Amino acid sequence: MDVPYDLTSYVRVLKLASTPSWEEFSRVALIAGAGVVLVGLLGFLIFVVMNFLPGAGA
Question: What residue spans define the domains of the chain?
């Protein structure tokens, strides 16, 4: 593990990184939020099926 080489590569990556624009940030946040809602909805539907249909759950 060459520590000076590792540190210079990390610094180079940080110099290339930039703050996203508001439009880019809001689009990513919207897509991530939609994914969270869809996963929650899927979990809720599985819960409903397992609890209210006879013989569907343990």
Answer: 21-52
Cα 43–chain centre separation: 17
Indicate whether 57 pLDDT > 70. no
Helices (H), 1-58: 3-16, 22-52
- Using a pLDDT cut of 90, give the percent of the chain over it: 50
Looking from the CA of 7 toward its CB, the CA atoms found within 13 Å total 3
- Contact (Cβ atoms closer than 8 angstroms) between residue 56 and residue 49: yes
| Rounded average pLDDT over 7-17 | 87
